[in-house]
Amino acid sequence: MRIGLIAPPWIPVPPPAYGGTEEVVDNLARGLVALGHEVRLFTVGESTCPVPRQWLYRSPAEPMGDHFQEAAHVRAAYQALADVDIIHDHTELGPLLAGRRGIPHPSIVTTVHGPVIAQNRRTLAETARHASIVAISDAHARSFGDIPVAAVIRHGIDLDACMPGPGDGGYLLFVGRMCAEKGVHRAVRVARRAGWPLVIAAKIREPAEQAYFDQQVRPLLGPGDDMRGEQPRAARAELMRHAAALLNPITWPEPFGLVMVQALAAGTPVLAFPNGAAPEIIDHGSTGYLCRDEDEMTAAAGRIGQISRGQCRAAAEQRFSVPRMAADYDRLYQVILEPPGRITSGRTGTGTR
């Protein structure tokens, strides 16, 4: 099968540091090649993913989120990939523009990586008229309401890039964006109350992220806390391997939560609020704790030693590997490419719990 992957134009594939969507695209490309498929990737020129690559922009487009640059990127992508069997688009505008502007294209799959909110619901409904939509968790799929979802396929990670560790660093860890929705200020308070130092590896690029850090996080930091900032993947993996636990006090319905899976792969338990996909990733009492509030999370930090790091790693291997993700997408592609009379309607139940 000839498969064309389209990545957003904002970050190289794989990402040098922060970039969950780009990491997923890189893993999927490698996984599909391992299954014997011919994969081409439309991305930015600085990408190093080991498949044939094409691009419009040699360097990441700026500012991030500029619709004019994204529109030019996806139009060039659909033109470049017109000869493949199926296009798998990971951008926001691509599937919409391909249908509304009459761009010739093969069958389209689009993975929605962000939340379904009032501002994009009409766009997604229009996209579903000519593309097969993939949600990345059951919670995410429910948020689509009456917008058709072709499949639920959870992300897979490169397990070799995050090997299990001993958890002997004597600290709790937060990894993610510096924003209130990720709950960084809550993580600082929990660690302080539980008597643990906190290491923070957080992306701070946007003015809003810096303002949140300065106003709500910096004043809470104590002498034992360690603000590392954004980290490359290898350094982030080392932090996870030696962390006693990952704190993920998210306050919004996050569609997936790649950082939780990466922590499990490192053998590191996760303490999370039960929002979004967290209950689909963390098995309460087995691979971490789902906590209703800061009080419960503080108490759970005292029970970290009851969680088997081996069980955390086993959960990642069984449920969140790249081969599993690639196989799920392979099955979906085959269903989409079946002759019209043989395609069954309804949601495809791919992506194991």
Could you list some keywords that capture this structure?
alpha/beta; Rossmann fold; 7-stranded parallel β-sheet; 6-stranded parallel β-sheet; globular
Number of strands: 13
Low-confidence stretches: 341-353
Instruction: Count helical runs.
Output: 13
Approximate shape: globular
CATH superfamily of the largest domain: Glycogen Phosphorylase B
Distance between the termini: 27 Å
Average pLDDT value?
Answer: 93
What is the annotated CATH architecture of the largest domain? 3-Layer(aba) Sandwich
| Strand residue content | 15-25%
Molecular structure report:
The chain has 353 residues and is of the alpha/beta class. The protein is 37% helix and 15% strand. It folds into two domains: 2-156 and 321-342, Rossmann fold (3-Layer(aba) Sandwich), CATH 3.40.50.2000; 161-318, Rossmann fold (3-Layer(aba) Sandwich). It has a seven-stranded parallel β-sheet, with helices on both faces. A six-stranded parallel β-sheet has the order 10-9-8-11-12-13, with helices on both faces. α1 (20-34) packs across α13 (322-337) and α6 (184-194) crosses α11 (294-301). Mean pLDDT is 93; it is low at 341-353.
